[in-house]
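pasting for the record
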Amino acid sequence: MKISMIGHSTVLIETANLRILTDPYFGLRGNLAYARLRPPAASRAELANVDLVLVSHNHFDHTDRAYFRALPESVPVLAPARAAWVTRLKGAKHVVGIKPWQRHQVGPVSIVAVPAWHSAIAAGYIIESEGRRVYFSGDTYFAGFMKRIAREFPPDVALMPVASFRVPPTMGERGALSAVKVLAPKTVIPIHLGIAPRSPLLRTSQSPEHFAARLGQNAAQTAVVHLREGESCEL
């Protein structure tokens, strides 16, 4: 299994001869409130030949209209069931709405949707393949449903936010520390690092490095692997 950081929350997971892409976002400028910090490591065209797309929610930095329009109709796009119609409006052709704790099979790879607590209708996903579990949290705060994830789908790897801003859209350091304590993954790969508030007043000093240091102070047995755009790790 190979995990590659494309940028922000867009991650390519290659496993069992399948290519799975999370939260596609290829925009270069952000929006009025948030700036994109670095360009993605691959273009829309370079990632059009995936086998499955996972959408956690429909905010601008997690869904890409131009990418969806270019994606072949044969490629399923999993999205939260109650917001699947929004994903279709954004151009995705083969949308599969999925409810929390529901399972979806693609060849030998099993996907389980799990809850997410966010300002939009959202989901996370457990990817089960090659004897491993990867938890892609999407945008979420720390919440009680993570105890059920730990009990039923204990992850080897957690792709999750570990830093946030003022008026936080996701869990920041404190929430991420609580999530690691409950989930006990072997590895955390930070996501949601590709944008920042345009206003300096809304930024914080939180970072993956500071999170890793705090995690070490808590004697956690979890490694933090900070993948920059274009970097990969093998499991």
